[in-house]
Amino acid sequence: MRDGNDLSANCVLQHCLKAFALFLASLLGMGHLLAQPAAYRTTDVLKVGSSSINVVISGAKPDVSYDMLLAYVGDAARAVSHYYGTFPVDRAQLQIVVVPGRAGVLQGTTWGDRDGFPAVVLLRIGEHTSQDDLRTDWKLTHEFVHTALPSLPDDQHWLEEGIATYVEPIARYQSGFLTKQQVWWGMVDGMPNGEPGNTDLGLDNTHTWGRTYWGGALFCLVADIQIRQQTKNALGLQDALAAIVRAHGSIKDEWPIERVLLVADKRTGTTVLEDLYKSWRATPVKVDLIGLWSQLGISNGPKGVLFDDSAHLADVRDSILHP
């Protein structure tokens, strides 16, 4: 199960709630877990390429229209499809639960191989969610990215969340929902959360919020840069991750991390991911982020992120967003 919650301090509590949700699911079954008051309920099937998403909306009647909600789902699904070349599973169920008296997209969770679907996503939104809330939301895209990676053992939960954290803004940029300034500002702002602390024992052994989400994202960023350096900027992490989907790897499957990285590395003709994992799995590796941003030609200006096209890795920076 993958969670796409607000990236804040309460994520420690949410990890505990996730375990409890799995316990409930095992006792009651997904149908009971997702059951909501029938004050409002509607179902539709959204086609995305050759895939279909069964959309079930229940709970309170939302302020936004039904068509706006379906357009929001379609935008997120198409962003992920564009990034991977296809939607990662042939069938998925999205259960949108509308919470009375609340506003905004609140929280999402994704399961693999539930209720007869390869992927099931539960998304909670507030009754008073606005069209602008939907337009600026990242959580549903984050959840759909989760469907593109086989389920990993608990010690590698950081790679599941790290890929979703790293890919989500890039996928939304490539589909026209973010600017490059927004993408890179999010990384500059968020990546320091992924650096190891004084008691860190490596990504496999340190299960804090920062290391799980942003430590995994930092692993992805470094891997993306190294792949592009070794392939003369011909290939990147996007190619590697898409290869996993083409090898029929998705959240409905359970793979060891070694198989995931082997398939991904084979596509780029490198061993970047396997080598990085060996280095980072049990060792607290620090990244010189200030030096890295300088090499990429990224700096903070008075009105946001500035780009230096003469920087050593400026071409890599641009290719990450424009593969």
From TrEMBL:
InterPro entries: Peptidase_M4/M1_CTD_sf
The protein's name: Peptidase MA superfamily protein
Organism: Acidipila rosea
